[in-house]
Specification:
Blueprint: H1 3-13, H2 18-37, E1 42-44, E2 48-55, E3 58-61, E4 68-71, E5 74-81, H3 83-90
Antiparallel strand pairs: 1-2, 2-5, 3-4
Helix pairs in contact: 1-2
Protein name: Integration host factor subunit beta
Keywords: DNA-binding
Family: Belongs to the bacterial histone-like protein family.
Protein backbone atom coordinates (compact mmCIF):
# COMPACT_ATOMS: atom_id res chain seq x y z
CA UNK A 1 0.00 0.00 0.00
CA UNK A 2 1.30 3.43 -0.86
CA UNK A 3 0.22 6.89 0.30
CA UNK A 4 -2.40 7.44 -2.41
CA UNK A 5 -3.96 4.02 -1.72
CA UNK A 6 -4.12 4.91 1.97
CA UNK A 7 -5.86 8.17 1.12
CA UNK A 8 -8.37 6.36 -1.12
CA UNK A 9 -9.07 3.76 1.58
CA UNK A 10 -9.74 6.50 4.15
CA UNK A 11 -12.00 8.38 1.73
CA UNK A 12 -14.08 5.32 0.89
CA UNK A 13 -14.41 3.98 4.45
CA UNK A 14 -15.39 7.27 6.05
CA UNK A 15 -17.30 8.88 3.16
CA UNK A 16 -14.82 11.74 2.84
CA UNK A 17 -13.64 13.52 -0.26
CA UNK A 18 -10.24 12.57 -1.64
CA UNK A 19 -8.97 16.09 -0.88
CA UNK A 20 -10.10 15.94 2.77
CA UNK A 21 -8.60 12.46 3.21
CA UNK A 22 -5.33 13.65 1.68
CA UNK A 23 -5.24 16.57 4.13
CA UNK A 24 -5.79 14.22 7.10
CA UNK A 25 -3.05 11.81 6.00
CA UNK A 26 -0.61 14.68 5.35
CA UNK A 27 -1.29 16.16 8.80
CA UNK A 28 -0.59 12.79 10.44
CA UNK A 29 2.63 12.20 8.46
CA UNK A 30 3.87 15.77 9.01
CA UNK A 31 3.21 15.50 12.75
CA UNK A 32 5.08 12.20 12.91
CA UNK A 33 8.04 13.60 10.95
CA UNK A 34 8.18 16.72 13.14
CA UNK A 35 8.15 14.61 16.30
CA UNK A 36 10.99 12.38 15.07
CA UNK A 37 13.00 15.37 13.81
CA UNK A 38 12.69 16.89 17.28
CA UNK A 39 14.12 13.73 18.86
CA UNK A 40 10.77 12.44 20.07
CA UNK A 41 9.27 8.96 20.03
CA UNK A 42 6.00 7.80 18.49
CA UNK A 43 4.10 4.84 19.92
CA UNK A 44 0.92 3.49 18.34
CA UNK A 45 -0.46 0.73 20.56
CA UNK A 46 -0.96 -2.55 18.71
CA UNK A 47 0.96 -1.29 15.67
CA UNK A 48 4.48 -0.33 16.72
CA UNK A 49 6.79 2.48 17.66
CA UNK A 50 9.10 4.86 15.83
CA UNK A 51 12.32 6.09 17.41
CA UNK A 52 15.43 7.89 16.21
CA UNK A 53 18.63 5.85 16.47
CA UNK A 54 21.95 7.64 16.76
CA UNK A 55 24.95 6.19 14.93
CA UNK A 56 28.53 7.22 15.70
CA UNK A 57 31.08 8.21 13.08
CA UNK A 58 33.17 5.38 11.66
CA UNK A 59 35.75 4.63 9.03
CA UNK A 60 34.20 3.12 5.92
CA UNK A 61 35.39 2.15 2.48
CA UNK A 62 34.34 3.47 -0.91
CA UNK A 63 33.25 0.26 -2.70
CA UNK A 64 34.17 1.64 -6.12
CA UNK A 65 37.71 2.81 -5.37
CA UNK A 66 38.54 0.99 -2.14
CA UNK A 67 39.52 4.33 -0.58
CA UNK A 68 39.07 4.62 3.20
CA UNK A 69 36.65 7.41 4.07
CA UNK A 70 35.23 8.85 7.27
CA UNK A 71 31.46 8.41 7.61
CA UNK A 72 29.88 11.19 9.66
CA UNK A 73 27.63 10.47 12.64
CA UNK A 74 23.98 10.26 11.72
CA UNK A 75 20.47 9.84 13.08
CA UNK A 76 18.02 7.52 11.34
CA UNK A 77 14.36 6.67 12.02
CA UNK A 78 13.74 3.12 13.20
CA UNK A 79 10.43 1.21 13.39
CA UNK A 80 9.84 -1.52 15.95
CA UNK A 81 6.75 -3.63 15.23
CA UNK A 82 4.18 -4.09 18.01
CA UNK A 83 3.15 -7.47 19.39
CA UNK A 84 -0.41 -7.40 17.98
CA UNK A 85 0.74 -6.50 14.46
CA UNK A 86 3.52 -9.10 14.55
CA UNK A 87 1.03 -11.82 15.60
CA UNK A 88 -1.52 -10.72 12.97
CA UNK A 89 1.03 -10.85 10.16
CA UNK A 90 2.47 -14.16 11.40
CA UNK A 91 -0.88 -15.99 11.51
Amino acid sequence: MNKSELIEALASRKDLTYKKSEEIVNIIFDSMADTLAGGGRIEIRGFGSFVVKHYKAYMGRNPKTGEVIRVKPKKLPFFKVGKELRERVDS
